[in-house]
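help with this record:
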Amino acid sequence: MSSIKPTRWAILDCNSFYCSCERLFRPHLIGRPVAVLSNNDGCMISVSKEAKALGLKLGAPVFEVRDLIRRHRVQIFSSNYQLYGDLSRRVMRILDELNPEVIQYSIDEAFINFSHVPVGEEEAWAQELSKKVFRDTGIPVSIGVSTTKTLAKVANRRGKKLGLKSFCLLEPLQVQKVLEETEVGDVWGIGAGSKAKLNLYGIKSAWDFREFQNTPLIRSLLTVTGERLRDELRGIPCVELAEMSEKKMIASTRSFGKRVYECRELEEAISTYVGFACEKLRAQGSVARGLSVMLRTNPFDHVNTYYRSDAQTSLPIYTNDTGLFTKAALTLVRDLFQKGLAYKKAGVFIYDITPNIGRQQDLFQQEEEKAPLMEAMDGINKRWGRGTIRMASCGTGQDWRMLSEQKSNKTQLNWNDLVEVRRESKNYRLFTKPPHRNTQP
């Protein structure tokens, strides 16, 4: 009998994470419908289960469901990424302290190697981990456990559907039953386009995909990544997270909170977006050369002619230096700008991305070493909030910034927003400074 323990992976997923963060300092919202809006308060990017029960869906434009929000008194918030990032770090810190191998996959998800857990005790460990995270952070989580990362995602999805804090998918017959009841489009890594391709060949469920034997066809439809996903459904660990999460293009685009007419304001916006994109580039350990800048007016303005234009350039060297990308981006903005137009949106796209490790240097370009400076900038911004340190070309006023009219306080990040506890007679009441105003649209 083999003494080798089977490989097992768990995925911890924070439930309706942005909504849970907003509820953390507002316990009276527990059990009430809550939604968090996207940049510029345009669409819903996080919806509590109570809001989902009312018919609100992720991605729904706010203007289309405004009556539903008012009728059911749905509490809405503008996105507060500084708050969410801080609470995410608190959750991940707990996982790092408890487990020797934790891989953060997104702001609200992390894979955990469960191979050290005694066989048969996976459910108890998952339940205890869920309780500890909630006890120490106040964020509710769900956990899925199986033999591969892809199956763990399937397990987590099934557990959420059943309303469970944890769900283990380990027995062969149980795996088959769950995969038969899971649509192929619900498998991690298979989007709508891939689902349509697979459906053409009669592959409707995750079990159909698992049992499909034509490997060359799978490769032609979904590349080698699809073949690996199929093998993961068969219980063969072969998906590396870097392959799933490393971006081949990084975009940073925003709509403005007002109409923008001046080139100076466009330069400030583009400089800010370049900073965001380069921060993501460094976070995944990559460098790039390609840069594209986009400007556009309001496509729904029926009075003025719609204008959209973009321009591309290639930097002399592969880099992740914010300064070099900003300099190139500002040149493109000045070339694209047309006086008299009311700009509504702008964005930057960084492409031609390659890993920073082992990249070939240019013999004819002298590259100034600014990695320590970029590292220090990222460290300060991570601790004190995005934009604490930025390029001078980003400006200070930034009147063009997107709307965030429903934004919550940064209760644990800003002294001015610190919670107050006041004693009134024999009762204690919580207050925030300044008090959060009525957020009904």
Q: What stands out?
A: The chain has three domains: 1-170, 171-245, 250-394. Confidence is low (pLDDT under 50) at residues 428-441.
